[in-house]
Amino acid sequence: MSKGHDLAYHLRALDDIHGVMSAMKNLAFAETRKLAQYLEDQQRLFAGMEDLLADFLRFYPQAPQRMGEARTVYLLIGSERGFCGDFNEQLRDAFAALRPQLTGTGQQPAVIAVGRKLAERLEGVLPLAARFPGPNATEEVEPVLSRLAEWLDRQRPAQGFLRLGVLHHAEDGGDGVRLSIFAPFRHPEREAPVFANPPLLNLAPADFLVEFADHYLLAALYAVLYRSLMVENRRRLQHMDNATHRLEQRMEELRRQRNQLRQEEITNEIEVIMLGQAIPDPSTPAVETDYPQDGESP
């Protein structure tokens, strides 16, 4: 009975864990639905800004040369929570592979990590200039980005701009880690409409590009954070689904063990009853015999 009690207790504990994991899976699914709309709008906005930048640089190709000194900062976007597989380990390994190329010029660029779990993975691997908590939900992207933008603004040279490299998850799968370089002084890779007349500016081209840089980088970081959070929740959904499936298999195995143990206990009880001495029933009448009783003559 003690073993059966232990099995029942273990099953109740696993059932509680199953409920928690199912709730986490449902939350991750709901988050991907919310992020899909946010991400679509943000990517459309960023695509429009890239078209604007491409059009500007076609008519004013010398403007970036007057922006001053550039400082390079690398931003690694990981996860704040766990239960998302090797999401953070892939970022760590990808940056380790890229690091010799990034430091080949002799300069040590500043590296910052977004996400507590990622920062833990980078402990002892490379020095971090700063670390920031990552968003747990769509609504937390904006406050995270506000703190990040304040820090980046302090790193910008007085007469220059930031060359921001962002290592992030862009797609699901093992090869979904991408290094995106955001700096508004290069022609975007995507094609943009070609216009015959230059854009009308109220500022000098170089001054316009300096002002435009902040809006461009902000839109780029929004798009990257939303995309990274989308991939993170998809990984978590997949991870929870696999873990729930294994948990259900374990619970089914324990139920079979419990039923088998109960059957064995019932069988043992039946054997004890059958092999034990029968107890006479007092309601059964005594059987009369012809044998003489004590004190009587035959």
Helical residue percent band: 55-70%
- Radius of gyration, CA atoms, in whole angstroms: 35 Å
Biggest sheet descriptor: 5 strands, mixed
Helix run count: 5
In terms of DSSP E residues, the strand content is: 5-15%
**Strand neighbour order, sheet with most strands:** 3-2-1-4-5
Q: What is the rounded distance between the termini?
A: 59 Å
**E-strand count:** 5
Q: By helix and strand content, what is the structural category?
A: alpha/beta
H and E string: HEHEHEHEEH
Shape: elongated
Polypeptide structure, described:
By secondary structure, this protein is an alpha/beta fold. The protein has five helices and five strands; from the N terminus they run H-E-H-E-H-E-H-E-E-H. A five-stranded mixed sheet has the order 3-2-1-4-5. The chain is elongated and about 115 Å long. The mean pLDDT is 84.
